[in-house]
C-alpha cells in the first residue's frame, strides 16, 4: 500500500519538528531550573526585607503617641525611618536596668499583686508572661546533645534532645538507667513530649543542637552535612540492638 501525499507530508512535518521539540524541551528545562533557583534565593530575601519594613513602620507609629509638637517629624522637619525602633530599644534597656535592682523588683512585685486581683486581666497577664519567658529565657543550650530513639514504635526513628538524667524516685524505681529526653514536634519544636528512656536505647548523633532544630523546623528539607564523618572517614554511630535481638 503506497503512502498518500498527506501521510508523506505528515511524516516530513514530524521530521522537521523533532529538533525544535527537543530544543523546546531543553529551553523549558533550563528556564524551570533557573527560575526555581531564583525563587529559592529571592523569596527569603524579599520576605525578610518586607518584614523589616513592616516592623520599622509599625514601631514608628509609637511616636504618634507623643504630642504633635514633640514628635521628631515636627522638631526635625523631616521623617527619619527607624526612630520608633530606637526609642523602643532605649525604653527596653532602661526598663531592664530599673527592674534588675532591688527597688525595681519590688515595684514589679507590687504591680503583679495588683494585677492578680483584677478578673480576666490576671489570667491574660500570667499567660503572656509565661509565653514571653518561654521564648526569650529558654535556650537551646539547655539541651545537652542530640540522639535518635525508636519512637513511636520499633523501626521508626525520632530526633530527641537530652536534657539530663532522671533523678530521685524515678531513677530508683526504674530497672534501667534512664535519661530525660525531649522529643519536639514539627514544624513547631517548642511543643513536644517528655520521655524517660533507658540510656542503652539512645543512638548518639554528631550533629549539633542548632542543626537538629533546622532539620526539625524544615521537616527534613534542610539536612545538615555529616562533616565529621566525611573528614575522618569513619562511620557514624550504629543503632543499638532492638529488644528482640538482645533477647
Structural overview:
The protein has 247 residues and is of the alpha+beta class. The protein has a domain at 140-227: SH3 type barrels, CATH 2.30.30. It contains 9 helices and 5 strands; from the N terminus they run H-H-H-H-H-E-E-H-E-E-E-H-H-H. It has helices at residues 5-60, 72-76, 83-99, 102-116, 121-136, 169-173, 209-217, 227-232, 243-246; strands spanning 145-150, 157-165, 178-184, 192-198, 203-204. The chain has a 5-stranded antiparallel sheet, covered by helices on one side. Helix 1 packs across helix 3. The longest helix has 56 residues, at 5-60. The chain is flat and about 100 Å long. The N and C termini lie far apart (77 Å). Mean pLDDT is 80; it is low at 227-232.
CATH topology of the domain at 140-227: SH3 type barrels
- Give the strand tally: 5
**What letter string, H or E per element, gives the SSE order?**
HHHHHEEHEEEHHH
Q: Tell me the major beta sheet.
A: 5 strands, antiparallel
State the secondary-structure class. Answer: alpha+beta
Radius of gyration: 31 Å
Helix count from the secondary structure assignment: 9
What CATH architecture of the domain at 140-227 would you give?
Answer: Roll
CATH class of the domain at 140-227: Mainly Beta
Query: What does the overall shape look like?
Result: flat
Q: Poorly predicted ranges (pLDDT <50, ≥5 residues)?
A: 227-232
Head-to-tail CA distance between termini:
77 Å
What's the arrangement of strands in the largest beta sheet? 4-3-2-1-5
* Arithmetic mean of pLDDT: 80
How large a portion of the residues is in β-strands, by DSSP E? 5-15%
Residues in helix, %:
40-55%
Amino acid at each position: 500500500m503506497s503512502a498518500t501525499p498527506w501521510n508523506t507530508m505528515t511524516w516530513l512535518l514530524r521530521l522537521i519538528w523533532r529538533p525544535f521539540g527537543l530544543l523546546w524541551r531543553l529551553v523549558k528545562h533550563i528556564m524551570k531550573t533557573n527560575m526555581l533557583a531564583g525563587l529559592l534565593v529571592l523569596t527569603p530575601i524579599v520576605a525578610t526585607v518586607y518584614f523589616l519594613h513592616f516592623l520599622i513602620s509599625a514601631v514608628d507609629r509609637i511616636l504618634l503617641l507623643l504630642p504633635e509638637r514633640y514628635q521628631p517629624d515636627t522638631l526635625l522637619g523631616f521623617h527619619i525611618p527607624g526612630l520608633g525602633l530606637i526609642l523602643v530599644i532605649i525604653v527596653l534597656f532602661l526598663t531592664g536596668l530599673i527592674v534588675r535592682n532591688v527597688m525595681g523588683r519590688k515595684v514589679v512585685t507590687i504591680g503583679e499583686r495588683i494585677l492578680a486581683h483584677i478578673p480576666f486581666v490576671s489570667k491574660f497577664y500570667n499567660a503572656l508572661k509565661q509565653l514571653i519567658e518561654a521564648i526569650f529565657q529558654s535556650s537551646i543550650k539547655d539541651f545537652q546533645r542530640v540522639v535518635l530513639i525508636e519512637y513511636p514504635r520499633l523501626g521508626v526513628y525520632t530526633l530527641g534532645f537530652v536534657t539530663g538524667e532522671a533523678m530521685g524516685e524515678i531513677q530508683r524505681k526504674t530497672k534501667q538507667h534512664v535519661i530525660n529526653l525531649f522529643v519536639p514536634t514539627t514544624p513547631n519544636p517548642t511543643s513536644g513530649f517528655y520521655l524517660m528512656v533507658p540510656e542503652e536505647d539512645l543512638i548518639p548523633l554528631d550533629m549539633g543542637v542548632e542543626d537538629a532544630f533546622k532539620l526539625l523546623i524544615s521537616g527534613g528539607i534542610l539536612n545538615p552535612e555529616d562533616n565529621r564523618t566525611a573528614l575522618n572517614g569513619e562511620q557514624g554511630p550504629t543503632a543499638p540492638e532492638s529488644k528482640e535481638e538482645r533477647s
